[in-house]
Amino acid sequence: MKAGFYWAALLFGTAWAYSEGLIAHGGRLVATDAMAALIALYGDQTGHPLAIAGALLLFIAKNFYCAIRGSHWVRRSLLQQGYRALIQRSGSQVSVV
Prior knowledge:
By secondary structure, the chain is mainly α. Helices cover about 70% and strands about 10% of the residues. It has one domain (about 5-95). It has a two-stranded antiparallel sheet. α3 (about 25-45) runs antiparallel to α4.
């Protein structure tokens, strides 16, 4: 499993979460996307460009959050499914966590 920043999560956000089997996180991300869409719609209907910018900022921040926290979410999901974490230490020693 890859640790660190997930570029796919940055680019695809909600779709990435569902593709990784993170259903609960995906549902929360859909709610965030819906909020951003409603804010953008409000800004479009009332002519407030700052509302549209805020909606875009919310969408981008959500995807960055997914990219940063994605490895933790996937790791926790795999551990809940029964997989074990292996940590490789110096000297090629592997420990089961």
